[in-house]
């Protein structure tokens, strides 16, 4: 089968790797530079265009990943054994590369483009993690681009001496990197068979902030059509004031034993490994983005969305088990262990709504199911924080959009499939009773990347393979048309005035947030000011 084996980009020719077997006809281009290496004098500066090259650049191997904590993810379960079981890949500050996977046979096909931003708290992770293997989406007619950017200290450092050099705008390099990558994609993707005016930006966890902020940047206008946000919508995310961000960065440098008042020249000479802690779990790393009135125009993302308009189709959701009513932490070790404690907390949280809605009869839990049931409530939006969003937030977002931009669609999901486990996982941090449908676990399914023996710790069942095929079909349909529905798929109701969403679990269930519990959650969130409309 003919493939696009070689492509001419603005900087020169690139040669990809042609797949065989099941994926014959698909070509992967790994490690294409979209900017100069941000090293030396370019450390903590906006990205600049890459240097052109002569001859053919063979793109058959992935570029090094951004320097990051060595155990920030390897020792965290279930992610360590699920996603990072192969250990750390090579790391470098020279990390501004992207990967293109295309099923096109020529540059004339104008296929839809999916640009993917990985999660990892913006201090770890990389573009070619096994759980978001792009081949299945490519087999469904999508050109998939995964984008790297500077992370942690390299992507967020803001200091007065850098401000003096950069007109008061240090920090936010991570978003500038993403803008440079999108600029490259718009200029070059048609040569790979993609349509530069039919781009979907997608991300998971920390990747959702990247994708959403990028969608509302000037470079995206006329090119981006859709957004996919997985854990979570991030409608109400707030950014740091510059003074606070710079204090975080100075404190971080001090913890590393580095004088934060060093000159820019001295800071740029420090070895990159000295700028990264062994583990990001033991100290607060720089980030998130800084509200600067420049590339981050408003302190709250919702204000940027309102100002720019509702021009995109949205697909967004979260996982059952990744959030708690009473904690900001991910996973299953921070929830309630007794019904008595839960009801006492709920009464304090809800105030008069507790009796108004007859909460103890509306929500029935006992000591045996309190953790699972209260995490389901959190996934619907009943919590003290909106860090992980919640279904009610998504439904309100869709309802507002349906009234203000009826031609733009919003689709919401709750992922509730608990991945299969091994007997030896019980009683450990991998125990499904603790982790449930854990944060990021849906990636195996949205990319349909689960394989026999991949990862080795998952004894996948036919239910998982079937769900992976269906979810990948939904995602591909949305990327192509703005609607996940298609022939042979269970119907996915839109999140509009009917408050529809889809639960993706052992069964696939269309739902509507119209019950008494949904009304309680909405009233609670109204009082919290969680609906920024």
Bin the strand percentage: 15-25%
Strand numbers in spatial order across the main sheet? 3-4-8-10-9-11-12-13-14-15-16
Mean pLDDT across every amino acid position: 94
Decide which structural class fits the backbone.
alpha/beta
Net shape: globular
Proportion in helices: 25-40%
Q: Distance N terminus to C terminus?
A: 52 Å
Low-confidence stretches: none
Helix tally equals 18
Strand count, sense and barrel status of the largest sheet are: 11 strands, mixed
How many β strands by DSSP?
Answer: 16
CA gyration radius, whole angstroms: 23 Å
Describe this structure in words.
- The mean pLDDT is 94.
- The longest helix has 20 residues, at 462-481.
- The chain is built from 18 helices and 16 strands.
- The strands form three sheets. Strands 3-4-8-10-9-11-12-13-14-15-16 form an eleven-stranded mixed beta sheet, with helices on both faces.
- The chain starts with 5 loop residues before the first strand and ends in a 5-residue tail after the last helix.
- The chain has 533 residues and is an alpha/beta fold.
- 50% of the residues are buried.
- It is globular and about 70 Å long.
- It has helices at 79-82, 135-139, 152-156, 160-165, 173-188, 206-215, 242-255, 264-268, 301-308, 339-350, 353-356, 359-362, 370-380, 391-404, 432-435, 443-446, 462-481, 516-528; strands spanning 6-9, 12-15, 17-18, 27-33, 56-58, 65-66, 91-92, 97-102, 111-117, 143-147, 194-204, 224-230, 313-319, 410-415, 500-504, 508-512.
- The protein is 30% helix and 16% strand.
């Amino acid at each position: 089968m003919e493939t696009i084996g070689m492509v001419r980009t603005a900087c020169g020719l690139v040669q990809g790797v042609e797949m065989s077997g099941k994926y014959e006809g698909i070509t992967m281009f790994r490690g294409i530079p979209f900017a100069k290496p941000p090293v030396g004098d370019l450390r903590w500066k906006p990205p600049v265009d890459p240097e052109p090259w002569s001859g053919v650049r063979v793109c058959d191997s992935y570029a090094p990943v951004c320097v990051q904590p060595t155990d920030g993810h390897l020792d965290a379960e279930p992610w360590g054994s699920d996603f990072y079981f192969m250990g750390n890949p090579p790391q470098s500050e020279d990390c501004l590369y992207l990967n293109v996977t295309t099923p096109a046979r020529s540059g004339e096909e104008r296929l839809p483009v999916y640009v993917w931003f990985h999660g990892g708290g913006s201090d770890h992770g990389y573009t070619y993690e096994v759980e978001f293997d792009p081949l299945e989406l490519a087999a469904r007619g999508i050109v998939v681009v995964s984008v790297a950017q500077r992370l942690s200290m390299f992507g967020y450092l803001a200091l007065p001496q850098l401000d003096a050099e950069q007109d008061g705008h240090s920090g936010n390099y991570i978003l500038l990197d993403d803008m440079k990558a999108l600029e490259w994609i718009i200029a070059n993707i048609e040569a790979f068979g993609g349509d530069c005016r039919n781009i979907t930006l997608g991300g998971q966890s920390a990747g959702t902030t990247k994708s959403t902020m990028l969608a509302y940047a000037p470079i995206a206008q006329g090119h981006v059509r859709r957004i996919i946000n997985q854990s979570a919508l991030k409608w109400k995310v707030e950014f740091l004031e510059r003074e606070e961000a710079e204090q975080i960065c100075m404190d971080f440098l001090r913890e590393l034993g580095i004088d934060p008042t060093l000159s820019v020249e001295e800071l740029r000479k420090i070895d990159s490994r000295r700028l990264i802690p062994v583990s990001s779990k033991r100290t607060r790393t720089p980030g998130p983005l800084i509200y600067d009135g420049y590339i981050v125009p408003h302190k709250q993302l919702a204000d940027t969305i309102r100002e720019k308009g509702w021009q995109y189709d949205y697909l967004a959701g979260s996982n059952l088990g990744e959030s708690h009513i009473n904690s900001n932490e991910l996973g299953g070790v921070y929830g309630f262990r007794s019904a008595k404690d839960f009801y006492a907390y709920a009464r304090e949280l809800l105030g008069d709504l507790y009796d108004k809605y007859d909460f103890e009869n509306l929500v029935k839990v006992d000591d045996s199911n309190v953790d699972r049931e209260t995490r389901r409530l959190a996934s619907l939006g009943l919590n003290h924080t909106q860090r992980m969003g919640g279904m009610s937030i998504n439904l309100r977002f869709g309802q507002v959009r349906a009234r203000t931009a009826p031609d733009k669609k919003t689709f919401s999901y709750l992922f509730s499939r608990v991945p299969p486990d091994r007997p030896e996982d019980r009683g450990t941090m991998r125990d499904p009773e603790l982790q449930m449908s854990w944060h990021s676990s849906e990636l195996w399914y949205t990319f349909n990347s689960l394989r026999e023996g991949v990862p080795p710790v998952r004894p996948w069942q036919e239910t998982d393979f079937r769900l992976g095929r269906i979810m990948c079909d939904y995602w591909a349909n949305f990327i192509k048309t703005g609607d996940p529905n298609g022939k042979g798929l269970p119907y996915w109701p839109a999140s509009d005035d009917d408050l529809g969403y889809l639960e993706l679990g052992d069964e696939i269930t269309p739902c509507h947030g119209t019950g008494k519990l949904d009304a309680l959650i909405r009233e609670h969130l109204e009082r919290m000011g969680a609906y920024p409309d």
